[in-house]
Design a protein that fits this description.
By secondary structure, the chain is of the alpha/beta class. The protein has helices at 46-53, 114-117, 120-134, 151-162, 177-182, 193-199, 217-223, 245-250, 265-281, 297-305; strands at 7-13, 21-26, 34-44, 64-65, 69-74, 77-82, 97-101, 105-107, 142-145, 166-171, 187-190, 207-210, 229-232, 254-257, 288-293, 312-316. The strands form 3 sheets. Strands 3, 5, 6, 7, 8, 15 and 16 form a 7-stranded mixed sheet that branches. α3 packs across α4 and α6 (193-199) runs parallel beside α7 (217-223). The chain is globular, with a radius of gyration of 20 Å.
Length: 319
């Protein structure tokens, strides 16, 4: 990178709870174990909003460039960039270029588009880990995906369908049914927590994937088959839960939790490489809602708040 291109545009957090500012910054010289990545696309995730609002303690100084996943090039090769504290403990990837740890860079194989890869550094990793490792989904399973139109949910639908399972998706919006079916769901339930148990009587899921929590947990457990698995990886509907413990133990339900922030670097890298492989073979499919300009980053965050997203939102970085 020449001196003329060391000044780049970036989306910067100056104060928690305030809109991000698009401004020019000068890239530092990469230190030992770091590389400069020319960035093309970046993903926008709920965790980014939590960081911007100060709801997730990160230890990073302000002002700081946000963004935890992206795709771009290093030395002419396309790469996925994720992990390494990007956007949290150090400057992230919502910028035209970034200095990142070498351990956060993974080469992309032929046939994997940078645009798709930019969407899987967080959501794709989560989907892969919960379906393949926690849920252990097989062709014998009957799968319910709550919040199936979201970034993670839509990828879970595709992975479970690719495994041969019977897959139902849940949404609260009739307008999102088509996008969930397009990912491979055989049926879509449009229901809130009050209608969920009855709506699932014909399915009796063996596995339910839950990014919602709150009032959805109790009816999900009621609907699960004996020896079913409830895989929890979010609480966008609320963290406080009331449920009937007798139902839980009498049906021998397993409750499995996933938190990406707890992954060790080596574990994260192996998971990302496996997710890239699933993207390459088509079992993991990315649904892109829209690609916005970097200058629209605050709009992207607001759309996540208002749940006006089907699949993933990306930022075009022009690296």
């Amino acid at each position: 990178m020449t001196d003329a291109t060391r000044t780049i545009s970036a989306a910067r957090l100056h104060e928690h709870g305030k809109p991000l500012v698009i401004e020019s910054v000068t890239l530092p010289e990469p230190g030992p174990g770091e590389v400069v990545v020319a960035l093309e696309f970046a993903g926008v995730n709920p965790i980014d909003r939590y960081i911007a609002e100060g709801r997730v303690p990160t230890g990073g100084s302000l002002p700081r460039t946000l963004g935890g996943e992206a795709a771009g090039t290093v030395g002419g090769r396309h790469v996925l960039v994720a992990g390494g504290g990007l956007g949290a403990g150090r400057d992230g990837v919502w910028a035209q270029a970034a200095v990142v740890p070498e351990g956060a860079v993974i080469s992309l194989p032929d046939g994997v588009a940078a645009r798709d890869a930019a969407a899987i550094g967080i959501a794709g990793l989560t989907a892969f880990k919960v379906v393949r490792e926690l849920g252990r989904v097989s062709a014998e399973d009957r799968v319910l995906v709550l919040g199936a139109s979201g970034g993670v949910g839509s990828m879970i639908v595709s992975l479970a369908a690719a495994a041969g399972a019977t897959v139902w998706g849940q949404t609260g919006s009739p307008g999102k049914v088509g996008s969930i079916e397009a990912q491979g769901a055989q049926h879509v339930v449009v229901a809130g927590p009050e209608e969920l148990t009855e709506a699932l009587s014909d399915l009796q899921p063996t596995v339910t994937f839950d990014p919602l929590g709150g009032a959805f947990v109790a009816p999900s457990i009621e609907a699960l088959a004996v020896r079913g698995r409830l895989v929890s990886f979010g609480t966008s509907a609320g963290a406080d839960v009331q449920l009937n413990m007798q139902t839980l133990y009498r049906k021998m339900i397993s409750v499995l939790g996933y938190a990406g922030l707890q992954l060790e670097p080596r574990e994260r890298r192996a998971g990302l490489q496996a997710a890239i492989g699933a993207l390459q073979d088509g079992s993991l499919r990315v649904q892109i809602d829209e690609v916005l300009a970097l200058e629209q980053v605050n709009e992207a965050l607001q759309r996540i708040v208002e749940r006006r997203v089907q699949g993933k939102l990306l930022l075009a970085l022009g690296g």
